[in-house]
Amino acid sequence: MRSVEAPLAVDVGYGxxxxxxxxxxxxxxxxxxxxxxxxxxxxxARVLPARDGVxxxxxxxxxxxxxxxxxxxFNVLRQYDAAEVPEVWDAVTSRLAPGGLFIEGTCDELxxxxxxxxLDAGGPVSLTLSWDPHDVASPGDVxxxxxKALIHRNVPGEPxxxxxxxxxxxxxxxxxxxxxxxxxxxxHAHAELVQKGWPLAPARRRLRDNxxxxxxxxxxxxxx
Length: 224
Description:
Elements: E1 8-12, H1 19-31, E2 36-41, E3 54-58, E4 70-74, H2 85-93, E5 101-107, E6 113-120, E7 123-131, H3 148-151, H4 159-173, H5 182-195, E8 210-215, H6 216-219
Parallel strand pairs: 1-2, 1-4, 2-3, 4-5
Antiparallel strand pairs: 5-6, 6-7, 7-8
């Protein structure tokens, strides 16, 4: 967002309301006030007049012919068959501007539990889980919001199941830190996961939510 003079960001499938897209645009403008934001919907009845500096147009994963620097699609692929996910990922990443990124994921209605895959032109890079520390009993509760590519893979023998099981075990082992709050407790649980060998990205700063970002290769479904 900062390295391009006027980056383009596209929100695919914004749904029945403009609220999330407009809010997203507001955050992106803190990174670059010249960012151009477009919301796309495949339902013509949901295409809205432009507002708050955001355009709303007809389109889907073909990106309406745009070549954006950033694409966001949340709670869209949940409606697709899991076998269709790779084709959608390829369609979007093939249309990204040089250095562009695609964020595809799922969250609950209030954004308290979320999971997303970060992709670049070469494919998936990482998986991030994020949750309000006061809304979940353990990290594994976020499993219900896993992206379509993984939600049916949360069974014994699959890498994503192993990660969530280890995260819950690390959370339990960090119970002694509970009096200091769930964020402090999670930092110690996160450190235990790193010690166990999970390739987790370090937190760049303290956040309101608890987060976990892992290399995609560590949780990718095995090829069959």
